[in-house]
Amino acid sequence: VQLQASGGGLVQPGGSLRLSCEASGFSLQNAYYVGWFRQAPGKEREGISCINKRDGRTYYGDSVKGRFTISRDSASNTVYLQMNSLKSEDTGVYYCTLASVYWGQGTQVTVSS
């Protein structure tokens, strides 16, 4: 199983980015959940958002509710994270995961003017 994350970069406050995580060797539809974590400098890794397999519901951390949207495309076996109204505190390395068992390599997001 491999997860390839992409889409990070440098963006100004208030801007947007869309992260992608393409899975190979495993169907995202079969994962207990798929989601995104992030790790800010000097902080522990925190859960940002996930999609639950059982009921398809989406979950968001309090810090990103109303700004981030997670989605999944079965045809391309890819999970996305649309990030809007970005803030400096959103800066960090973003990781995609399959049920916290398999992890992508991380993609850096920097929000700065």
Task: Please give the structural blueprint.
Layout: E1 2-6, E2 9-11, E3 17-24, E4 33-39, E5 46-52, E6 58-60, E7 68-73, E8 78-83, E9 92-98, E10 102-103, E11 107-111
Parallel strand pairs: 2-11
Antiparallel strand pairs: 1-3, 3-8, 4-5, 4-9, 5-6, 7-8, 9-10, 9-11
What's the short story on this structure?
By secondary structure, the chain is mostly beta strands. It has strands at 2-6, 9-11, 17-24, 33-39, 46-52, 58-60, 68-73, 78-83, 92-98, 102-103, 107-111. The chain is 0% helix and 52% strand.
**Could you report the average pLDDT, rounded to the nearest whole number?**
93
Overall shape: it is globular
Task: Tally the helices.
Answer: 0
Sheet bearing the most strands, described? 7 strands, mixed
Terminal CA distance reads 37 Å
Protein described:
The structure is a single chain. The strands form 2 sheets. Strands 2, 4, 5, 6, 9, 10 and 11 form a 7-stranded mixed sheet that branches. The relative contact order is 0.32. It is built from no helices and 11 strands. By secondary structure, the protein is mainly beta. The radius of gyration is 13 Å and the shape is globular.
